[in-house]
Amino acid sequence: MRRNLVVGNWKMHGDIKSNQILLESIIEGLRDFKNADYVVCVPNPYLFQARSLLTNTNIAWGGQNVNQHEQGAFTGAVAPHMLTDLGCTYVLLGHSERRNLFYETNLTAAARFDGAIKGGLTPILCVGETLAEHEAGLTEVIVASQMDAVMATLGEQEFAKAMQLNMVFAYEPVWAIGTGKTASPEQAQLVHQFIRNRIARRNADAAAKVRIIYGGSVKAKNAAELFAMPDVDGGLIGGASLRADEFVAICQVANNVTSSACLTE
Ligand code: 13P
């Protein structure tokens, strides 16, 4: 059975002082939650701060991207072992902002995914269509191409390693990110089911286990209906992860949802 997962993506927000206030409130707010997993993906300069505040709590931390190389002349890049050195367990990959603003592609996402699992990080692969693609009825085509670009590069051994690391998929329709528009629970469910079925074509066991989280204007007020969907295993939260009360409330929903798909192990 799958545990819900809530991941806060802070994007490029925060400073030492505000991070401390936010993290201390989240630690306090999540203290008694035991039925789901909680993660914050903070900007790289603050990973050290995340490690010092979050060690021995029920909140994990991770990076927002990673380079596939182990080391070398790659100015501005961060290697997988640098994230694990700072205690990261998770890393976001292929976020639409990386794709749209920093020219990352399916190919770079695949290379980074491979580097992440070799380095022992749990990859959270973000997929999702733009508004134009959505309106043209291309959602499944786009999501399939984003998934296949990564899955096709994984041999059996790498796929097994990715599963061992509990790889995560995040469906984030680009038109719902930071816009206040959310996919309806039914819309999200259809795409999540599509993602799970596509993984099942490769490995049915893996498909049953893999967590597929939804991102795009998730707030405390809409989290319950989204997380109640059978193939929605939690959320990837942007703006609302910067407000302790909102983030804690969303985590509480994930902690409380005990639909048959989300029972704790
Ligand atoms: P918002 O929750 O601000 O829409 O952002 C979603 C997102 O991009 C998380 O990765």
Care to give the gist of this entry?
By secondary structure, the protein is an alpha/beta fold. It has twelve helices and eight strands. The longest helix has 18 residues, at 185-202.
Q: How is the secondary structure organized here?
A:
Blueprint: E1 4-9, H1 16-30, E2 36-41, H2 47-54, E3 59-63, H3 80-85, E4 90-93, H4 96-101, H5 106-118, E5 122-127, H6 131-135, H7 139-151, H8 156-164, E6 168-171, H9 185-202, H10 204-209, E7 211-215, H11 220-227, E8 234-237, H12 244-256
Parallel strand pairs: 1-2, 1-8, 2-3, 3-4, 4-5, 5-6, 6-7, 7-8
Helix pairs in contact: 1-2, 1-12, 5-7, 7-9, 11-12
The site of 1,3-dihydroxyacetonephosphate has 14 residues, from strand 8.
Describe the protein's architecture and organization:
The model is unreliable at 259-265 (pLDDT under 50). α7 runs parallel beside α9. 45% of the residues lie in helices and 15% in strands. With 265 residues, the chain is α/β, with parallel strands linked by helices. It has helices spanning 16-30, 47-54, 80-85, 96-101, 106-118, 131-135, 139-151, 156-164, 185-202, 204-209, 220-227, 244-256; strands at 4-9, 36-41, 59-63, 90-93, 122-127, 168-171, 211-215, 234-237. The termini are close together. The chain has one domain (4-239): Alpha-Beta Barrel (TIM Barrel), CATH 3.20.20. Strands 1-2-3-4-5-6-7-8 form an eight-stranded parallel β-barrel, surrounded by six helices. Residues 9, 95, 172, 177-178, 215-218, 236-240 line the site of 1,3-dihydroxyacetonephosphate.
